[in-house]
Amino acid sequence: MQHLAISKMAEDLYLALSKGEVILSTRDSSGRPTGMTVAWGFFGCLWNEPYFLAAARPYRYTWQGIRDSRRFTVNVLSDAYAEGLRYFGTVSGRSEDKFAKGYFHINEALHDYCAPIEEARLLLDCTVVTANQLQPFFIPEEAIQRFYREDNGYHTIFYGHIDRWHRSEATGEN
Question: What is the CATH number of the domain that holds 141?
Answer without folding.
Answer: 2.30.110.10
